Amino acid sequence: MIGKKRLREIEPAAAGLKALYSPKTAIIDFSKVVQAYANVIKSLGGEILLSQEVKQIEYSNTHFILNTKKVTITTKFLINCAGVHADKIANMIDRAVSAKQIIPFQGEYYDLVHEKISLINGLIYPVNGKMCDDFAIVQKKGMVHVLNAPSPGAMAPFSIGKHIASLYNQMV
Ligand SMILES: Cc1cc2nc3c(=O)[nH]c(=O)nc-3n(C[C@H](O)[C@H](O)[C@H](O)COP(=O)(O)OP(=O)(O)OC[C@H]3O[C@@H](n4cnc5c(N)ncnc54)[C@H](O)[C@@H]3O)c2cc1C
Fold first, then answer.
1. 143: CATH
2. In angstroms, what is the span from residue 23 Cα to ligand 1's centroid?
3. What is the mean pLDDT of residues 156-165?
4. Structural domain boundaries enclosing 101
């Protein structure tokens, strides 16, 4: 977190009371990043099931039973990372969790015209409201629900992943 003065040093053309400074933020090809994650998961023996929408979840004593149109998956632990649909998945198993409803909103991005490009040095995002309204991780018996709107999901996946893994380790 930086104040007004430091913000002016980094981005002279920007004005604000406070800012979150992320020096490593950059524009990347996210599909290549996701493909790299998939390769790591597979190389560690993991399996990725594509085009298999979870339609229903049941809880049976100690196990969750997930039903897609094609398969039924039985698991002792459930980590719900369904992005903007995470509240719908939560709703299938626990209405109390889905009380945290995800409300999509439209964001707007601007590109500076070429002559003005020297005005800024990096990416600038407005931050308003309470950050916790943007992101919530809810842990329940045998379950972790990652409930997020467009948020730091792509920017901080390793930190978020480590936190989710630590919650999983507490459950096993
Ligand atoms: C237009 C836009 C621009 C963005 N720009 C940025 C940015 O610049 N920087 C940044 O850090 N973040 C950005 N974000 C946010 C970022 O994309 C999300 O935070 C991130 O993708 C969240 O990751 P996730 O894995 O939690 O969810 P997602 O990436 O949304 O993945 C959820 C997955 O769950 C699957 N799924 C959903 N429902 C079901 C179901 N019933 N059964 C099975 N699978 C299901 C979906 O198909 C999807 O593959 C942007 C988002 C949008 C929409």
1. 3.50.50.60
2. 23
3. 87
4. 2-171
Report the candidate in 89, 98, 101 with the shortest Cα–Cα distance to residue 149.
101
Tens digit of each residue's pLDDT (9 = 90 or more) over 134-143: 678 889 999 9
Task: Give the mean pLDDT of 102-108.
Answer: 69
Tell me which of 98, 151, 163 to substitute to probe ligand 1's pocket, judged by most ligand atoms within 8 Å of the beta carbon.
Answer: 151
User: Does this model's pTM top 0.85?
Assistant: no
Bridge partners of 67? 56, 72
| Tokens 């380790």, located at residue | 169
How many separate domains does the chain show?
1
The token pair at 68 is 């897609």
Residue 80 Cβ < 6 Å to ligand 1: no
